[in-house]
Known about the structure:
Elements (H helix, E strand, L loop, with lengths): L11 H13 L3 H12 L6 H17 L3 H8 L5 H14 L3 H8 L9 H17 L3 H13 L4 H18 L3 H10 L10 H14 L1
Helix pairs in contact: 1-2, 2-3, 3-4, 3-5, 4-5, 5-6, 5-7, 6-7, 7-8, 8-9, 9-10, 9-11, 10-11
Amino acid sequence: HQFEADPTVTDYLIASRDAEKLMRQRKWNEALAAYLALATDQKLTDLQKSEALQQAADCARNLKDYEQAAGITAQIPLESVAKTVQMENLLAQREFEELIKQFGGENFQQWPFWQRGAGAFARARAYVNLKAGEKAEADLNTALEFTSDSRLRTSILFTTGTNRELNLNADEAALAAYRQNFESAGRIGAAEQFQSVQGAARILT
């Protein structure tokens, strides 16, 4: 049975799903406008507003509008989310040294557990690009421990393999990370899973 629904009724969940659909379609301007409109809802919790603005900043970065991304980031009410988005903004502009200058001393164990993985993975990518292999490894281990999303774990494992192979010259450990990305997968579909297969084949060759 198809129940009647009032299309004028909405809430955070409905609006955020609509905005997410626009992001998946790479309609960055439309998604940006949707998330910014959502963030103005006075009934949102700080967490909901932070999530909406985080996605809005992501849209702005995809549009290469880093000034707007920074302005959006400044409005994020939760400090740990704001710091994560600041790091993502710097990564997008390849400002790796500036990221470490600002956040190298950050203690993620003091962050809310649900944000530790995202913060650690952001800083880890800066360390990988700066060839600081040991520091990257430590942050990647933290990121993996506090991340449950399968897509993000795929990225973390691929980055771990890359860091071990190129920066730590630890081929066996790199191979283990690469293999985790595809051996237990029922079906390989993500780009970083294919890249992990290539990395494993390269090491074995």
